Sequence to fold (129 residues):
Amino acid sequence: METVANTTADPTLEFVELKLGKKTYKLLYDFDCIAKVEEATGISLLLGFDHTQINSVARCAAMLYASLLRAHPEITLDQVKRLVTPHNIAPIARALNQAWYASTAEREEKEPEDALAQNPPAPEPAPAD
Fold:
């Protein structure tokens, strides 16, 4: 039985879109993808991407590669490196930051709508006379 869980159709995953030229990419970080890219590149990615400190094209490409793998498993590191150009660096940096935040931000847990039905509030005791 096929499900949408852990696919790009999974409504619980928050992808960030990055449009470069005529192509739109979906970005999302997960630890498996980060680990694969760290192993392939030797670059530590666990701390994320700081757009105020863009001092390495290799790190930017590695972060982009890691964020693309979930939705675009066919893409290669060499293809991603070609996307990192002076013209594309600003939109890439914005998308990387958005994807990192979306992937790591704590979500507010909501109570099920029927929580009150399951646990109705108890009436307060009447004051003693």
Observations:
- The two ends are 64 Å apart (CA to CA).
- Residues 22-104 form one domain.
